Amino acid sequence: MQALKRWATGFCIVGLVWVAPAVARPVPETFAPLAEKLKPSVVNIATTKVVKTRRLFRNFPRFGPRDPFREFFGDDFFDRFFGDQPREFRTQSLGSGFILDEEGYIITNNHVVESADEIVVRLSDEHEFEAEVVGTDPKTDIALIKIDPGEVKLHPVRLGDSDKIRVGDWVIAIGNPFGYGHTVTAGIISAKERVIGAGPYDNFLQTDAAINPGNSGGPLFDMEGRVVGINTAIVAGGTGIGFAIPVNMAKEIVRQLKDRGRVTRGWLGVMIQEVTKDLAEQFGLEEPMGALVSDVVEGGPADKAGLKRGDIIVEFDGQKIRKMNQLPRIVASHAPGSTVEVVVLRKGDRKTFRVTLGELKEEALAGRARIEEELGLTVQEVTPELRKHLGLDVEKGLVVSGVERGSPAHQAGIRRGDVIIEVNQREVEDLDDYRKALEESKGKDSVLFLVKRGAGTLYVVVPLSK
Question: Is 216 among the residues known to form the active site?
């Protein structure tokens, strides 16, 4: 019996099966050897931007037809000191980055180098180089810059696999917080696939390794010294909540930036929305899943392949779509012209379509998409099913199925269940009307909605940033 007890101390009994317990990875005694090895691969980035402004006393007034001040000082004096002449100011900011290869390519955040007139890269050994921008991708906040190292030996990083990193795994961040130079912080992966509203392809790693202003663009390393993320954002006022772009997302983007200086993305040609609990019930699903197609672009890839409004996309090229926000980034990661299988649920039946993707034209969609995203509204057309379920007494219009908390629409008072019947005093009967009306709002200060709520109607003004 004693022998059995000694033998059993390292195991747990589940029924009659002996199961070895999970072995927790020990807390590192020190991060010093790893930090010392990795610091030469991390760079500090200082940028300078020239901003032109007008003088404070622009158009200094005259005091009557005979201005004694002008007569005494002269027009030249007033034109020089109070005239409409531009002045230049130089603003500076700091960030981080990491060395991709020995040629001098460096990965950082787009917001670190965006609109910079001068970029200076400093290595851990104090060597400094001027850098040029190779390419940027504002949608994912990734940028590729380059220095000419000359005879200086560079120490490139190793790229890891962010899909394999687990919640709870140890990581360290190295960067340039508040301009203090190479600084090392440690923590764990707190969560994965975080959506924080930074852009259409949000998919962040969350970490409690300290990330501060100046860390942007720096690497997040695993315990093998491989980059698993690009430190990008923090929660204002939060403690231990930082976000990093998964390196797997960055790999293809960086490759395209290096090859041609820009990023091309696949285009499916559908408008999608989240499958809520209520919608799942309406569509006969046991639980919310997939991306609901609220509209199909006429003549687009999905339309040509046979997808229809009301389809729920549950798989794309072999990848399961659990949530709506997964689909845009998965589609975008595929090259235009590639053919993929798309699996949908249509009235309870599972159907598979082969779709040849087009190229996403960012410029053509930018104005309308920016307004739609900024409003914080999710809408869908009134259908007989929705009329019955929600008890609506209208046959046409757009039902508000979601309002993002804190968004302009939320603050203006639009609620879930409201029916939008006019946008800027123009009747909207379907999604095409709605989107055309929003396009016409480009450049304006606000959007005027007429919504039906219960038995009455009311006008709601939703402000837009310019």
Answer: yes
Q: Would you tell me the crossing angle of helices 362-375 and 431-439 to the nearest 10 degrees?
A: 100
What is the residue-wise DSSP string for 220-268?
EE-TTSEEEEEEEEE-TT-SS-EEEEEHHHHHHHHHHHHHHSS---EE-
Confirm whether 141 is a catalytic residue.
yes
Which of 93, 96, 141, 433 is flagged as catalytic?
A: 141
* CA gap 31, 175 in Å, rounded: 15
pLDDT tens for each residue of 148-184: 999 999 999 999 999 999 999 999 999 999 888 889 9
Q: Which CATH class is domain 31-49+88-260?
A: mainly beta
Contact 169, 189 (CB under 8 A): yes
DSSP string, 15-28: TTEEEPPP-PPPPP
Annotation: CATH topology of 266-359? Pdz3 Domain (2.30.42)
- In CATH terms, is domain 365-463 a member of 2.30.42.10? yes
Q: pLDDT tens, 54-64?
A: 444 444 454 45
Model confidence, pTM: 0.67
Residue 71 pLDDT: 52
Judged by DSSP in three states, 150 sits in coil
Query: Is 162 labeled as catalytic in the residue annotation?
Result: no
pLDDT in tens, 271-312: 888 888 888 888 888 899 999 998 888 899 999 999 998 899
From the candidates 93, 111, 311, 407, which is the catalytic residue? 111
**Nearest residue to 263 (alpha-carbon basis) of 333, 319, 191, 330:** 333
> Does residue 373 contact residue 357 with C-beta atoms inside 8 Å?
no
Please identify which residue in the block is written with the tokens 């970490």.
207
Is residue 305 classed as helix, strand or coil in its secondary structure? helix
- Catalytic: which of 93, 96, 162, 216? 216
